[in-house]
Amino acid sequence: ESNRVCNALALLQCVASHQSTRNLFLSAHTPLFLYPFLNTVNKSRPFEYLRLTSLGVIGALVKMDDSDVISFLLNTEIIPLCLRIMEMGTELSKTVATFIVQKVLLDPTGLSYICETADRFYAVSVTLEVDKTCELSHCSAGIHCSCQHGIATACDEARATLCAEPG
What pTM, to 2 d.p., does this model score? Predict the structure, then answer.
């Protein structure tokens, strides 16, 4: 059963990544149908495939560097879902969730959203272990280290801005 759903999600990924259908995909709030798969804590293989394929659809959306996509995802609370997956998912799911968070942080709207409240900033920085360096021995893929480094850089800039003396 999960294979069929994953196949359907792969089609949605194509729709999400195509420039002429992406806005319609968002207007229909289609990504919201993926959130139950992202929200599950079941670690069995079928659920992990559903989680990973759903992350792939969201990843296809953020890959296009579109602020409208970032705004939509922020309004639908994608960050808490990705942070939880980064804490409890498989290595591949963690990598895709990290990529999504990185793309959000690298967008000015996304970075502003994360830095809007101390709680949000703290949740992201704790999950990312911003104060620790990423060593290759701790990462299964170079892309994961790259995402960690990019996010740490964005958070360092945000922290400097938040802690700057008014003047």
Answer: 0.80
